Amino acid sequence: MPEQCLFCRMVRGEIPATLVAENAGAIAIRDINPQAPVHVLVIPRTHVESLNALADGAVLGAMGVLARDVAMAEGMADRGWRAVMNTGSDGGQTVLHLHMHVMGGRSMHWPPG
Ligand code: 5GP
Ligand code: ZN
After folding, report:
1. Distance from residue 6's CA to the centre of ligand 1 (Å)
2. Mind listing the domains of the chain with CATH numbers?
């Protein structure tokens, strides 16, 4: 768990974040710069830089289950929602700790650009 990693520090409670939900493998917090009425980040407790560095598929499993829980709790499961994982610079990743954007509450566009 790198000392200075922003999301590791949130997992450790060193930096404040609005916790929405959590499970054994991941936490869910509100994005500081929401791009949709619901914009939650699902962050694994363990430090993995990106999908490129994913070694343990169970990490993604814990994230997926928590994303589902968030979608249901936010009341958007029936209408639909979007999960996004940006990887590397071309993918638009700015925080180098794996995370899933859980977005909804409005109709999402495709392609995302
Ligand atoms: P990425 O661009 O890496 O896919 O997503 C990083 C996300 O983290 C962005 O949506 C950005 O708004 C969010 N973010 C960056 N810094 C903070 C912060 O300090 N707190 C919270 N809650 N979100 C942050
Ligand atoms: Zn980290």
Report:
1. 9
2. 6-104 (3.30.428.10)
